[in-house]
Amino acid sequence: MRILVVEDDEVAAEYVRKGLMEEGHVVDLAGDGELGLEMAKAADYDALVLDRMLPKRDGLSLLKELRADGDKTPVLILSALGEVDQKVEGLRAGGDDYLAKPYSFAELLARVEAMGRRSDPTAAVTKLKTGDLEMDLLARTVKRGDQKILLQPREFRLLECLMRHAGKVVTRTMLLEKVWDYHFDPQTNVIDVHISRLRAKIDKEFDTPMLHTVRGAGYRLQV
Q1: H or E segment at 109?
Q2: Pairing between β-strand 2-6 and β-strand 170-171 as defined by DSSP bridges
Q3: Where does residue 79 rank: exposed (0-12), middle (13-18), buried (19+ CB within 10 A)?
Q4: What confidence tens digit (pLDDT) does each residue in 108-135 have?
Q5: What are the residues whose beta carbons fall under 8 Å from the beta carbon of 87, sequence distance 6 or more?
Q6: How do the residues of the chain divide into helix, strand and coil, expressed in percent and rounded to 5?
Q7: How far does CA 95 lie from the centroid of its chain?
Q8: Count of domains forming the chain
Q9: Of 88, 122, 156, at which residue does a domain stop?
């Protein structure tokens, strides 16, 4: 998921950004309400994590303008204001969820990913299977046959993309956009490195290779 975090507390913002990125998400930061509104309007995000009390423009004002413009991006409101009527106010302003401070990162992550599943019709699928390779999107586990395969967050996203397009060629451009959120080719070997690592984990110990390179086109996952 591509996520915008609008939070003026730099330490808190970096804490959330780092945690979300470790889970494989792409994260942008905005430190005030005006910048947050500008960034939210300028790009397509899968979710917003929005602090309620912000400099220059408060979070609820930002949210109301987005909703008035027809923006349906799921929004998780963060706030030290945790009374019931304050939560109701945030939800009625257009928030999809409300998390009072202090909060645990595990709960924030679960709420953000739940919003993403509700807003993405393709996310209703919780398990992917290609041959004897299986991926559980909720438990974030992968196994081939009876053998568990441990993947880093970026490797998990890469394999998920390939499995969602199993049997079809996935181009480098598609991978850059869906896994790295690059809308340009950075002219690096980042894809090759991760494909090599992924192939070593899902193919090396098995008789039948599944991850194939299609010369001049991209990659294809198939039995």
Answers
A1: helix 105-119
A2: unpaired
A3: buried
A4: 988 898 888 776 655 557 889 999 999 9
A5: 98, 100
A6: 40, 20, 35
A7: 19
A8: 2
A9: 122
